[in-house]
């Protein structure tokens, strides 16, 4: 449990993140980005979404490209075959290769890790090639067909590759500038009005729609993150409340409520399986004198040391020790006969003595000692856990009456002689 407990820094970071999410969702700014770590998580989610779209629509995309090439071939064959199929070699073949890379290249680990960084130049080259295709077709019947292909490309790049809006804007501006400069360099004709309409106006519409979609995605991401963090916070609070309800605040061991819940289950199991069950009730000898002599802070420290000793004295995971109230502790030993319970009690007496916690006002030793009452039985349906604890308490009372610093073991059949102090 301790390994899963968040550190103070993690709790503070979580609360800072929650405050940031609530601030953004309440103000709802038009444009915003996240802090670095959150932005990386968001972009990773967008990459995963983009890869899903690409892989889901890969065959449809290949079919669409095949149809575009087929329509161009059957309707503009002379142009496609001109100059030794120059248009196919310089436009369609490179664009097809880029489409194949977008579809299948993302499976390469280095592409997957740097998806948007790799796809940016790929998209740039693709848009510039098709734009050159449009410029080359200026003045003939193929010009309109080439323009439609460019508009489809701009749309697919925005929707499929899911660049961040500033990156998409940079891609459109850069590809447009490169296309115009190359047209000037190679002397290709440019229709300014047509270019403004199909590239600038249409590109702006796509950019605005992409920005709106990204903004909604960002708010959706914040809502998911808020729900997750609130769930984690609720889980943490529930665990804290559970711990408070079942753990003694002073000693850190289970409290009486926790003991009662566990003991009831073990009592039922012992009844069902006809197995022996031992209860040890322990009391620190002359603890009131100890508090009066050394103070309550020292008394608290003493109880913590006793609790630690009791925990260390238990050798089996199923065994349990709890603080039962004040200076009283109770131990649950499932499937333990009287002989086993006596060995545990003897070990506790030795280890508490070995601790040598000073107690000058004790009437039995110069150090802190304990008295132990043991009750062992094979329970049946006529008996109750409350009754068993009462029997252990009677054994403890008898151990105190016999001089303290010892244990007294009882069974339903007999009373055994108390072990002598070390």
From TrEMBL:
Q: Which PROSITE patterns match?
A: GGDEF (PS50887)
Query: What is this enzyme's catalytic activity, as reactions?
Result: 2 GTP = 3',3'-c-di-GMP + 2 diphosphate
Tell me what this protein is called. diguanylate cyclase
- InterPro entries xref list: Diguanylate_Cyclase, GGDEF_dom, Nucleotide_cyclase, Rev_trsase/Diguanyl_cyclase
Keyword match Isomerase? no
Q: What is its EC number?
A: 2.7.7.65
- List residues traversing the bilayer: 52-74, 86-105, 146-164, 171-190, 196-213
List the GO molecular function terms. Answer: diguanylate cyclase activity
| The protein's required cofactors | Mg(2+)
Note the superkingdom of the native organism: Bacteria
Any single GO CC term annotated in Swiss-Prot or TrEMBL for this entry: plasma membrane
The scientific name of the source species is Fluviicoccus keumensis
Using the record's annotation, list all stretches that form the GGDEF domain.
Answer: 275-412
Q: Keywords of this protein's UniProt record, alphabetized?
A: Membrane, Transmembrane, Transmembrane helix
Q: What EC class is this?
A: transferase
Which NCBIfam families would you find in this protein's record? Answer: GGDEF (TIGR00254)
Task: Name the GO terms of the biological process aspect.
Answer: cell adhesion involved in single-species biofilm formation; negative regulation of bacterial-type flagellum-dependent cell motility
């Amino acid at each position: 449990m301790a390994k899963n407990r968040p550190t103070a820094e993690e709790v503070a970071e979580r609360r800072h993140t929650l405050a940031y999410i609530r601030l953004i969702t309440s103000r709802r700014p038009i444009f915003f980005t996240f802090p670095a770590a959150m932005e990386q998580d968001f972009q990773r989610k967008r990459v995963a979404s983009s890869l899903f779209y690409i892989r889901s629509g890969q065959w449809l995309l290949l079919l669409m490209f095949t149809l575009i090439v087929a329509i161009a071939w059957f309707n503009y064959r002379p142009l496609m075959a001109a100059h030794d199929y120059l248009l196919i070699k310089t436009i369609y073949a490179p664009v097809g290769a880029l489409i194949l890379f977008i579809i299948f290249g993302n499976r390469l680990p280095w592409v997957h890790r740097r998806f948007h960084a790799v796809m940016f130049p790929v998209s740039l080259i693709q848009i510039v090639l098709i734009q050159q295709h449009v410029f080359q077709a200026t003045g003939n019947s193929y010009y309109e067909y080439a323009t439609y292909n460019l508009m489809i490309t701009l749309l697919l790049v925005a929707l499929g590759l899911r660049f961040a809006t500033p990156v998409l804007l940079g891609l459109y501006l850069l590809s447009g500038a490169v296309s115009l400069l190359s047209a000037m360099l190679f002397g290709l004709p440019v229709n300014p009005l047509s270019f403004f309409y199909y590239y600038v106006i249409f590109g702006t519409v796509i950019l605005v729609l992409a920005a709106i979609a990204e903004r909604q995605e960002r708010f959706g991401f914040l809502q998911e993150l808020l729900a997750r963090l609130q769930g984690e916070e609720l889980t943490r609070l529930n665990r804290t409340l559970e711990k408070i309800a079942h753990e003694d605040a002073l000693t850190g061991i289970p409290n009486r409520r926790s003991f009662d819940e566990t003991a009831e289950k073990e009592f039922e199991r012992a009844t069902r399986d006809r197995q022996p069950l031992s209860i040890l009730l322990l009391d620190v000898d002359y603890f009131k004198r100890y508090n009066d002599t050394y103070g309550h802070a020292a008394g608290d420290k003493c109880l913590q040391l006793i609790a630690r000793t009791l925990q260390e004295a238990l050798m089996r995971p199923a065994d349990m020790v709890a603080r039962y109230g004040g200076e009283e502790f109770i131990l649950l030993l499932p499937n333990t006969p009287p002989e086993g319970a006596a060995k545990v009690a003897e070990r506790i007496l030795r280890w508490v003595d070995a601790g040598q916690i000073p107690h000058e006002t004790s009437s039995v030793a110069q150090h802190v000692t304990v008295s132990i009452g043991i009750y062992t039985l094979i329970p049946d349906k006529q008996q109750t856990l409350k009754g068993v604890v009462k029997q252990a308490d009677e054994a403890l009372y008898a151990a105190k009456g016999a001089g303290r610093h010892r244990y007294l073991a009882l069974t339903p059949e007999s009373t055994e002689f108390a072990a002598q102090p070390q």
